[in-house]
Amino acid sequence: MKFTDKQIKALKPEPQRYELYSKGEDGLGIRVTPKGVKTWITRYRDRATRKHIRITLGVYGDPEHGFLSLSDARKRHIENRALLLEGQDPRALKQTEKKKNLEAETVEAFIDEFEKHYRPKRKDGRPPSETYVKENVRILRKDAVSAWGKLKVKDITKRQIIALLDEVKERGPIAANSLHARLSMFFRFAVKRGVIELNPFTEIDKPADSRKRDRWLDKDEIKIVWNALDTCPVHDNIKQGLRLLLLTGQRRSEVALAPKSEFNLEKKEWIIPSTRTKNGETHLVPLSEPVFEIIQDLFFKYPDSKWLLPSNYGLAYKKADKDTTRDDLPFSERALSRAVRNNADKFKHEDGTAIPHWTPHDLRRTAATIMTSECKVDRFIVRKVLNHKEPKHMQITEVYDQYEYENEKREALDKLALKLEEIIKNDD
Question: What is the pTM of this model?
């Protein structure tokens, strides 16, 4: 029989190990052990000894977990047959490559390779942002390198991974879940690069409950946060960035990393390109009057920077009259979060009690809540303002409906600005 995925899945273990070969595929086989492990093999005859030689291709299973699917096994088998036709011994080449990989790759060294080559495509086929790649590497260097840096990737066990995740969980559940996601990427990549043959990360659950956040700021908290920002010992650009999050409802990265080129001050529009949006679609954000004033002020203050919110680092170099080609940088997304976290004691009620923990992303949720509950904006329009992906049952219609809803979004954001102004100035 010629192998099909359905047939391979249906193979049952027997008391003795056995092999089956795919009809018409010139030596592509699968070996099934008494424990049910299914391993792909290429079989060929050695030209000198005329004996059958078997090369292990990989263990059958889901590629997402570091295993080899039927289609991937066929590709590797065809590559081996091509080498044979060229007079090369694929077994000898594999052993040379395996020896090189297993001898050289420590965790610390392989993270360098991960940083250089790991570029998983998003669901819509787009490459990941460089910010995403850098954040993956930062988390791995912080925790994995400090724990296992000089160990070889092939020597890391499932038990060691669980122990590290438990240790990080004590520091915080979010940090543990974040590391879990990055280690999963790291070990899948190690399998694909031939550094390890079996993925030790399979069936390791997230270390902490990842419930969806539903925090938003009420009217009193909005007023407290807005006014308290003036007393926080952080750069004015970070304060303005946080205010823009609340006034526009856009994502933290979209605000923090915005170049001036995205803004049309004449039309009072902000066009976020598809390369910077989460759903991969260009997004038009009309500018309400308070947002326009903030942006206009930032343009005036920093005429030589290409960024809306240039960082303190780049500005320091400009003041020193140095070559700033590489120093004109925006504030990072984390700078906004760090400012909120480090100044938590500034956001207090009149009785001195601090408001509950909040994050910059909660300002986006707050903007959406105010628009629906206070401004009575239709939820469909709020989704358009936030650039949320439509529910699946609406996506077919969405393909044909290319209307931008600019007027409706402008009206919604104008209402939001007026309501926020009313909340902030309320003396009750």
Answer: 0.58
